[in-house]
């Protein structure tokens, strides 16, 4: 099932303008709020939606644009996944960019953000996202394109999904190995989810 297109307001509301007026140093938030409709035009949103091609039928997935915006903010600020979700609830600058002012619940969960980033990298759309963002910064002059590229390119986030996948693969292999050894010794074995212990019975 394909996600809906994301079409947040283009013009600043009075509440948003008040936040923009108070931002003195973190200009990336203002830049992303001003260009988000250009960065995520319908064509690019449709391209990003390919991430969900293999999604099962059911509840429509979260639109990729706000997830991609959160990923850019993470990469630039160095926020962890937990910090990103917390910022969506506590930081008006994040809420400004993602169109969720005064939200009482984050617009998406940590697992959703992690899975999205993993698929973004897997399909090499992370580079497209960075290039489009940097190009818009260059065209509009709304943010230093060289500094933005340096910050995004050097972010450890782009390798995080690959590392997580490696750990998951190792974990599955270890579980299988322990189960085989236990069977060979004539003992049953089960591993509790999230715990690194094998209990025999």
Summarize the structure in short.
With 201 residues, the chain is an all-alpha fold. 63% of the residues lie in helices and 3% in strands.
Characterize the structure shown.
The structure is a single chain. The chain has 201 residues and is mainly alpha-helical. Helices cover 63% and strands 3% of the residues. Mean pLDDT is 83; it is low at 161-170 and 190-201. It has a two-stranded antiparallel sheet. It has helices at 14-22, 27-39, 42-48, 64-77, 81-90, 92-98, 110-122, 125-140, 145-153, 157-184, and strands at 189-191, 198-200. It is built from 10 helices and 2 strands. It has 2 domains: 14-155, no CATH class; 161-200, no CATH class. Strand 1 (189-191) and strand 2 form a beta hairpin.
Keywords:
201 residues; mainly alpha; two-stranded antiparallel ribbon; disordered C terminus
């Amino acid at each position: 099932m394909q996600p809906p297109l994301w079409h947040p307001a283009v013009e600043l509301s009075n509440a948003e303008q008040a936040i923009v007026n108070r931002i003195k140093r973190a200009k990336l938030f203002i830049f992303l709020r001003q260009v988000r409709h250009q960065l995520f035009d319908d064509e690019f949103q449709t391209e990003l939606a390919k991430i969900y091609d293999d999604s099962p039928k059911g509840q429509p997935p979260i639109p990729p644009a706000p997830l991609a915006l959160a990923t850019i903010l993470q990469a630039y600020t160095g926020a962890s996944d937990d910090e990103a979700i917390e910022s969506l609830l506590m930081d008006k600058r994040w809420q400004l960019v993602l169109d969720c002012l005064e939200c009482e619940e984050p617009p998406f969960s940590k697992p959703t953000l992690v899975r999205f980033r993993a698929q973004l990298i897997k399909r090499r759309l992370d580079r497209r996202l960075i290039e489009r963002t940097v190009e818009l910064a260059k065209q509009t002059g709304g943010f230093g394109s060289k500094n933005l590229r340096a910050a995004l390119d050097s972010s450890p986030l782009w390798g995080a999904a690959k590392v997580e996948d490696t750990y998951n693969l190792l974990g599955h292999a270890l579980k299988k190995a322990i189960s085989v050894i236990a069977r060979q010794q004539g003992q049953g074995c089960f591993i509790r989810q999230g715990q690194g212990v094998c209990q025999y019975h």
